[in-house]
Amino acid sequence: MPVKKQDVHRALQLLEEYRRNLTDADSEELREALTKAIVAIRSRLFQALLDIHDFYSYTLESNAKTTETKTEETLHLAEKWENHPPPVPAETAQLAAKSLDARVNSNTASNVQVKF
Questions:
Q1: How is residue 114 annotated by DSSP?
Q2: Residue limits of the L27 domain (predicted)?
Q3: Which of 1, 33, 38, 97 is the most exposed place for a label (fewest CB within 10 A)?
Q4: HSE value, Cβ hemisphere, 13 Å, CA-based, for 74
Q5: Alpha-carbon distances, residue 67 vs 21, 60, 62, 63 (angstroms)
């Protein structure tokens, strides 16, 4: 069964809502883990993988489309990605920065060198 973008986005909304509703200080580790998962899901790579999955399912696997049509649609998709890469949502960039800052601070506190 193909994964639909709207299902992924709804699942992401549920994760974000769950994270927002956490109130216990004991759940800080869970909040951080959810933040990491949300950042990963909202990343450009993940969004591109969803696009590829949709493209494969609805274009390349279609018996109703000719090879010529599939070629045209493939070229259109490639041009789209080359000219307009998917944006990183502002909230994702903020979550990633916050997550990175937390890691850098914890590594600095324990005298561990952070390498990128």
A1: P
A2: 4-64
A3: 1
A4: 11
A5: 49, 9, 10, 10
